[in-house]
Amino acid sequence: MVSSVWDTELERTAEEWAETCLWEHGPAGLLLQIGQNLGAHWGWPRPPTSHVQAWYDEVKDYSFPYPQECDPYCPFRCSGPVCTHYTQLVWATSSRIGCAINICYNMNVWGQNWAKAVYLVCNYSPK
């Protein structure tokens, strides 16, 4: 098992992306080299760890070696179980992580405007 270490460059790129307030993975060029998880919420305050726990809890829908069975058609219409956040968290070769949080005003999340959304971006890398 590979242990993860905090990476300030991944943190910097996560911060840059969180500041865009775009509810999509990106930037596209960087995604060729890294993995990424996104989380957003508004309303009732909660810690960022609640997103990380939700990502991990997708383990219940993961069935090795068939992860494609838990990847619904997203991001436009999600139905069925999701486990891609979980697989990103536990990916065997990921050894570096960097995350950032930003407050986004009027963030568009799946077609709805969220006032004062808390946006979490985590980037993962094997090197």
Automatic annotation (TrEMBL):
This is Cysteine-rich secretory protein LCCL domain-containing 1-like. It holds the Pfam family CAP. PANTHER family: CYSTEINE-RICH SECRETORY PROTEIN-RELATED. Belongs to the CRISP family. The gene is LOC120040183. Residues 1-127 form the SCP domain.
